[in-house]
Amino acid sequence: MEMDQEKPSGQTEEVYSVWALPPDDVGSRLKEIMSALRSEFDGPAFDPHITLVGAVRLTRESAIRRLRSASGSLRPYTARAAAVSRGGFFYQCVYLLIEPTPEVMEAGAHCCGHFGYETSTPYMPHLSLLYGDLTEEEKEKARKRVEELDKEIRSLTFEVSSIGLFRTDTQDKTLKSWEMVEVVNLK
């Protein structure tokens, strides 16, 4: 604890993630679905995103520097929904599976490389719609509800033209400590 006090301000390591962000019109459409799911199944509110880099521990300064570096050579790319799915843990409760096209996979690998992020599981691009610890039956009900709320959701296609750095303490399941640090537009 004392070491943290000796570090210059802003040098404490925290947990950050890098998100690919949908354009505003798509974000609004997704937020409506997410809000309806939360009113029915509970869970915390969060912004629609496709995670490019999962939870990585860095200083804020280093994380911002890496985001800017990664965005400098990353071009806008297309993301297409492949299915509405349900997962096995809190942060992948109900989500849109994103088609793992070469450009989607390369964007993930590119950003992970800049952040020195390595994981033992292969990258599975997805856009979460609901976080929660639900039973399999509840997850399936929520998954079906997504398709009722937006019958065209499985054909959703959008351009990712911005990525963001977010402070995401994964121990905080309320997400109240989560914050957007910086968003960069891709060119």
From TrEMBL:
It holds the Pfam family CPDase. One of its GO terms (molecular function) is 2',3'-cyclic-nucleotide 3'-phosphodiesterase activity. InterPro entries: Cyclic-nucl_3Pdiesterase (IPR012386), Cyclic_Pdiesterase (IPR009097). The keyword ATP-binding does not apply. One of its GO terms (biological process) is cyclic nucleotide metabolic process. It comes from Iris pallida (Sweet iris). This is Cyclic phosphodiesterase-like. Residues 132-159 form a coiled coil. Keywords: Coiled coil.
